[in-house]
Design brief:
With about 450 residues, this protein is α+β, with helices and mostly antiparallel strands. The chain contains ten helices and twelve strands. Strands 4-5-6-7-8 form a five-stranded antiparallel sheet, with no helix packed on it. A three-stranded antiparallel sheet has the order 3-2-9. Strands 1-12 form a two-stranded antiparallel ribbon.
Length: about 450
């Protein structure tokens, strides 16, 4: 390898290490594991107050994106049934949430398709599944002229063998002609290099891995995370401020008594006795704080508000309503939730494209035509059922179809019509039964 090639390889390795350090810092911030802002001396109280707003805000943003998300293949019922089977086997709710959280923290998310398994000796048949990959274990190589053309994925993780000894495993998924080759290898502490354990051909023209940016990053392969360095620094500043307030209160919240003009042994101050000073020149006072920490608390509020603003999660979305008086109208809710809606819409573009592409590949692998589908996303703004139905009645008067109105309200029109027919038949049967039980002559 020449000097130029070696320099490029060294730069790639340095970029990978920097990326992994960034992921580690983001996960530590998400779990509230950052270094304590105040030093703690041995044997002294710990005044650090960890208020981890990042996890709360990231979870709220991810829930707004993922919870209730689904896809509709109305034009192909068989495709819908098959995809539901695959995703149910993949633990749909958990996998979708992991994809959302991995992306929010690391800036990029990866999903891997595990093909269906036929029944064999000692093994039962299993449908295809979708796995959420840890972004820290994945690296990519792409065409320098087209960053959308990833020609190699590499997954590397730590494991143990059957004897409990540490082992490093690696799976390389690389384009070979029109298909892909999957190569498994492992490395042990007592050996140099890698030992190939298997190699199989992936027969399709797409890879088993689908990836997506969390938030768009122009001209970059890796996306932006919710927890970039500036957000983490703001959370650390918030913890530093509130920890300092805690330390000030511990030292100065209780007034200190001081005196002059006498010896300490001359003063008696039992709980059930009157304090009597030994001479007229003696003095006894309390040393109290001259501030109620308004400025420090105001700084904490400003930092907290800035954190909500930068993460685009309004305080009302986390249940804070003490600054809002009376009922909130629909327009007011839209204004309050506008920042969160904008962030979620940005994510829906990337995550939605990834999920539909995943489904397309699953259908092709099952030998089915890749039917067109669409994503159905949950509402970000809290719903007002009464206002929605009043608006639906007005829309109906304007000529909007019943099917459209039922879909807007979260119902399936075909299912509702079938249930209505069943209810009508049941009502008719009950009426006929009642008439048969009436005595002849038409009187009860």
């Amino acid at each position: 390898m020449g000097i130029f090639e070696q320099a490029i390889m060294d730069q790639v390795a340095a970029d990978e290490q920097q990326r992994l350090r960034r992921f580690q810092a983001a996960w530590r911030a998400y779990y509230g594991q950052d270094v304590k802002p105040l030093k703690v001396k041995p044997g002294k109280p710990d005044d650090n107050v960890p208020i981890n707003l990042l996890r709360l805000l990231v979870n709220r943003s991810t829930s707004a994106l993922i919870r209730g998300a689904r896809w509709d293949y109305e034009a192909n019922e068989n495709a819908q049934i098959y995809l539901d089977t695959v995703w149910n086997a993949s633990r749909r709710a958990r996998t979708l949430r992991w994809l959302g959280l991995n992306g929010a923290v690391c800036g990029h998310t990866f999903a891997k398709i595990v093909p269906a398994r036929a029944a064999a000796d000692g093994l039962t048949a299993r449908p295809a599944r979708v796995l959420a990959l840890d972004p820290a274990t994945v690296s990519m190589a792409w065409d320098a002229d087209d960053i959308d053309e990833v020609y190699r994925y590499r997954i590397q993780w730590n494991a143990t063998d059957m004897a409990g000894r540490p082992i490093i495993k690696r799976q390389t998924i690389e384009r070979e002609g029109r298909g892909w080759t999957i190569t498994d290898a492992e490395s042990r502490p007592d050996q140099a290099g890698w030992t190939q354990t298997s190699q199989v051909d992936w027969p399709w023209d797409f890879s088993p891995i689908v990836d997506a940016q969390n938030l768009p990053a122009p001209n970059e392969v890796w996306g932006n995370s919710d927890l970039e360095a500036d957000i983490i620094a703001l959370q650390n500043a918030l913890n530093f401020t509130v920890s300092n307030v805690q330390r000030i209160i511990r030292y100065h919240a209780h007034p200190k008594t001081w005196g002059s003009g006498f010896n300490a042994s001359e003063l008696r101050a039992a709980v059930d006795e009157m304090i009597v000073l030994p001479n007229a020149q003696a003095q006894l006072h309390n040393l109290e704080m001259q501030s109620d920490l308004d400025s420090s608390l105001a700084l904490y509020d400003r930092l907290r508000q800035a954190l909500h603003a930068l993460l685009q999660v309004p305080e009302v979305a986390t249940g804070k309503l003490d600054t809002i008086a009376g009922a909130i109208s629909g327009v007011a809710l839209q204004i309050l939730y506008q920042p969160l809606m904008e962030r979620v819409e940005d994510k829906r573009e990337t995550y939605g494209e990834m999920l539909l592409e995943l489904n397309r590949r699953l259908l092709i692998m099952a030998g089915m035509a890749p039917a067109p589908g669409q994503m159905i996303w949950p509402e970000v703004i809290p719903r007002d059922p009464m206002a929605e139905r009043q608006a639906a009645l007005l829309d109906q008067q304007l000529g909007v179809s019943q099917d459209t109105l039922l879909q807007q309200l979260g119902y399936e029109p075909d299912n509702e019509r079938a249930k209505s027919q069943v209810d009508a038949i049941d009502a008719a049967d009950r009426l006929l039964t009642a008439m048969d039980r009436r005595p002849l002559g038409g009187t009860a």
